[in-house]
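Review this chain:
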Amino acid sequence: MESRINYTIVGLFVVLLLTGMMTFAYWLMKYGGNQKYDHYYVYMSESVAGLSPDASVKFRGVDVGTVEHIGINPKNPEEVKLLLKIRHGTPIKVDTKAKLESFGITGLTFIELTGSSKDAPLLQKTGDKIPVIPESPSTFSKIDKSLELLAEKSSLALDKFDRLLSEENLDNIAAILLETKMLTRDMRRQLQGFQDLVDNGVTMEKRMTEASGRLEDASVSVKKMADSLEKNYADVGRNMSRDARQTFESLNQLLYELDILTEDLQETIRDIKASPSDLLFKHSRPRPGPGEKGYHEK
């Protein structure tokens, strides 16, 4: 009974396996045989370690073909020649580039196609020549170059740092530090003198402020004195003008009287010249004075 059940299971498994193989063969004959492929060359200047024939070719992460052949470029031994088999209809354009990529930590390498802007023309075959897809540096290649450049710059930096810390430079640095210390000490003394100068300037400013106040008071006093002098000079001028007026009036009276006296003297002199004897023999009657008879007579 148990043997009959085992034979039934094995027979059922064999039937299912044959059915699956026949179904796969039918699909392969119907669809796989009609699939068309295009071939492209890629010339890699970096190591393709980890890449094997039949490795995947991906276009933006989508499987579009496989690597059909890997070999050294006979025209340039520094390059690796790859022949890619890519499904027909894949938009391989003139700006498409191929680079090596890896599956995480597994180390399995495949070809990744990048680029292909929508406005770029398709990469066409010229005659019987297989078109060439240009390479692009892989991530590991970029990291390797960056590390190499970093190591080179680090070596140069260490060399310069070693020269910077030579005995001669250390002695120069020690001398500079000593001079800096002396300069700092001198600057402290200069700053103290500058502080004293500032204090003296503040004191001088206070004194100048006080002197300015005194000058202002003196200016007020001088103004008052000038106003007083102006007033006194005005009074003196008026008094002098009045005295001068009186003096001029007296002088005019004196001149008038002198004029009358001069006329009388001239008349007397003319009379004497006309009759000199009258000076001795002529008697004149004096004119009556005030209160005398005939005073008011002409």
Notes: The mean pLDDT is 76. DSSP finds four helices and six strands in the chain.
